[in-house]
Amino acid sequence: MSAKVTRADVARYAGVSSAVVSYVINDGPRPVAQATAARVRDAIAVLGYRPNTTAQALRRGSSRLLGHVVPDLGNPLWAEFALAVEAVAAARGYDVLLASSEGGADDEHRRVETLSARGVDAVIVTSVLARPDLVSRGSGVPLVLLNTFFEVPGFPSLGVDAFGGAQEATEHLLGHGYGTVGLVIGGETGELREQGWRAGGGTGPIARGEFSRHGGYEAGKRMFGSSDRPRAVFVASDMQAVGVLRALYELGLDVPGDVAVVSFDGTVETEFTNPQLTTVRQPVRAMADAAVARALGEDSSERRVLPAELVLRASCGCG
Amino acid sequence: MSAKVTRADVARYAGVSSAVVSYVINDGPRPVAQATAARVRDAIAVLGYRPNTTAQALRRGSSRLLGHVVPDLGNPLWAEFALAVEAVAAARGYDVLLASSEGGADDEHRRVETLSARGVDAVIVTSVLARPDLVSRGSGVPLVLLNTFFEVPGFPSLGVDAFGGAQEATEHLLGHGYGTVGLVIGGETGELREQGWRAGGGTGPIARGEFSRHGGYEAGKRMFGSSDRPRAVFVASDMQAVGVLRALYELGLDVPGDVAVVSFDGTVETEFTNPQLTTVRQPVRAMADAAVARALGEDSSERRVLPAELVLRASCGCG
């Protein structure tokens, strides 16, 4: 088997020193002439040499691994969570393997199993499920739920203060003097962002749609294509807000001149819309840090709720 | 050890039938009362039961696994590649583990090693490197390079026809009667998209920047803040085009009235800019399909180049 091929064998085959083989494998610390490097790589391929990953791991300080299950990576929010978890894990000497799910319970369950079977030390599940408790308790590795709005009995979980964020956004829009603040949100009635909007003084109308750009576009066309449109709107996700801006553009309505908009999530995309979106920013990095700390047993909290931050830009009428 | 705990043990502990335990674990096919399901999950947790993944894999038709190394997931293009690889792999009964890299050679190398060490059958590397040949040949599993513009000796690779796509985009803009077509692109001079732009009749100016929204914004401010701005521009990536649109908005220039824009990549974000972006669409799904086929040995091609498709929308002056 290839496991018995040593670096010395590769060196002999390629006609170079063992150190040069190491430089080629590790891309340093010393440079190797291109033709020599090619010869070494050929020798590695021919002999089926496989570097000793345990030794490599020791040199790197870790062979430790976390799993992370994320929903649809086409939503920049989940991509930002994936990157943040990776960054904070790397700072602790951990690599991360990602598995993207379609967001359903079966699918999340299966991804957790796949990662567990590959020997990860813990799995972080960034979930959009209303019932993430369907994730198996039997997976045999610690699980941490990231981005749940509610406590999930039996699992450590983390979420943003969605109620407070939505309330502050709505109060801010009313503070501008706009008489009515509508709501664009997902299909589920009464969730925390809707409660926060209502607590902040939101009275309607409400347009529901998928949590996607297209869902926001369709909801925006319905809400603002009608004659009794609201003067301002709180949109419960950035993706939907991008769709609402597109709908307003098509309807010839100016933002914020005709309609003021505040979104929720605070992904990088909101800095590059025209105009830039005022948004309730989720503390993605802090949430990722708390999730990794919990997954590695650095603390034992069962539930943490982190505050959101209202970022003021042009779409609400500020700046 | 927990491996010796059986489903029958769980059933006995929870006071239910073995079938009910299965329904809870698999979330079906029959519904289970919430209180009963909670009891089963408690039993699983207490006993440390771990479902037999081999049996599960057989039931699902596979326990096979591919690895996929992707650069910055904050770019929707890479997220789309990740989703597409997962979808085409799933259609063949394969799961995918993702590892996101910072895009450097060391980092890609390490991710390949991490995935290889976890027993994946092959690794697909979606790379932005000019020199992806630095990926180790010694990882012991088949590698396929996805999204390389050039042939990479020693590795099977796939890419889009960047030259042809850029040429067609530029010719299309000139066909509208715009006298000059500028270029916004990355820092590396003379790559295929630049060659294609030139072959299509592009004469300048050129503004270079990072392949990011911010890089496009900065390049756009430079190119269009000057008095001798071009009437049209080909932007070599969607991310940069989003930044260019933001710069034009700030400068008070209308698209396409003052400046016509065509981008390259064709991610979903281009459908939701204002106006919508005309773009050279990469055949992401077909590329992912070809990469997975190659990784699984369904064909033995060393190099495949897939055609791009010019998608006409409002930003170039069409529609």
Q: What does this 3D model show about the protein?
A:
Chain A is α/β, with parallel strands linked by helices and 319 residues long. The first copy, chain A, folds into three domains: 2-51, lambda repressor-like DNA-binding domains (434 Repressor (Amino-terminal Domain), Orthogonal Bundle), CATH 1.10.260; 64-160 and 284-306, Rossmann fold; 162-282 and 311-316, 3-Layer(aba) Sandwich (Rossmann fold). Helix content of chain A is 40%, strand content 17%. Chain A has eleven helices and twelve strands. Chain A has helices spanning 7-14, 18-26, 34-47, 53-60, 76-91, 105-117, 162-175, 192-199, 213-224, 238-250, 284-295, and strands at residues 64-70, 94-100, 123-126, 143-146, 157-160, 181-185, 206-208, 232-235, 260-265, 278-281, 303-306, 309-311. In chain A, helix 5 links the parallel strand 1 (64-70) and strand 2. In chain A, helix 1 crosses helix 3 and helix 9 packs across helix 10 (238-250). Residues 53-62 of chain A have low confidence and may be disordered. At the A-B interface, helix 3, helix 4, helix 5, strand 2 and helix 6 of A face helix 3, helix 4, helix 5, strand 2 and helix 6 of B.
Summarize the structure.
Two copies of one chain form a homodimer. Chain A has 319 residues and is of the alpha/beta class.
The top-level CATH class of the largest domain in chain A is Alpha Beta
Strand content of chain A: 15-25%
Provide the spatial order of strands within the biggest beta sheet of chain A.
2-1-3-4-5-11
- Give the name of the CATH superfamily of the largest domain in chain A: Response regulator
Order of helices and strands of chain A: HHHHEHEHEEEHEHEHEHEEHEE
Would you give the CATH topology of the largest domain in chain A?
Rossmann fold
Q: How many beta-strand segments of chain A? A: 12
Instruction: Estimate nothing, just give the exact number of structural domains of chain A.
Output: 3
Structural class of chain A: alpha/beta
CA-CA gap between termini of chain A: 67 Å
Query: Low-confidence parts of chain A lasting 5 or more residues at pLDDT below 50?
Result: 53-62
Mean of residue pLDDT values of chain A: 87
Gross morphology of chain A is: elongated
- Number of contiguous helices of chain A: 11
Oligomer: homodimer
> Which two chains form the greatest contact, residue counts included?
A-B, 63 and 64 residues
**Helical residues, percent of chain A:** 25-40%
